[in-house]
Description:
The protein is 37% helix and 24% strand. It is of the alpha+beta class. The strands form two sheets. A five-stranded antiparallel sheet has the order 4-3-2-5-6, with helices on one face. The termini are far apart. The relative contact order is 0.18.
Amino acid sequence: MKSISRNWLRLPPQALDLLTDCRGIAATEFAVIVPIMLVMFFGTVEFSSGVAVDRKVTLVARTLSDLLSQSLPTAPNSTSATVDDTSLQNVFTASIAIVNPYTAAPVKAQLTEIYVDSNQVAKVQWSKAATIGTNATQATLAPSSRNAGDIISVPTTLLTRQTYLLFSEVSYLYTPAVGYVMGMSGVTLTDVSYTRPRQVVCVTYNNIPAGCPTP
């Protein structure tokens, strides 16, 4: 111990000053903590924006099926309503206003009419999809991933025999500004909504279904 103390005492004054100097500790700690703080900050911002967009996706899904369900009868005593490409395009275009102020370009939506037969089997009657271009003011119709006659899974509580359902599906690719926080390729947000026609028994598109059959 005496030899160590003597060696310590033999150090030049400059070395002793360097060993006892604590003026850079705060800067060093700050440099270590800043990256963690930035990740937490941007992570909170991006997560909050993602939650807000997810909520808008839910609103879009509900709005699309709700607007289609309000289609009016083709005649005073008719049990069906008729929609064409123009009316469907207008329904899909509502997505732009709902998603605002976020860009609507990542929105992918589908509207499908389902018929639940007497055996409680849900089948697609017709289906149409839409996309929205960058800075577009109107949706563009596109082929749907569902075809007429496809059997579709529907919640048990909605399987009422010989009834129709209007089914909307919406997806949104949310790409965070700071990619490494939530994923470089983004996060796909989805939601669906089921609504029964309000004014009629069914809604026809291109004469499908013909006369709202209820076998």
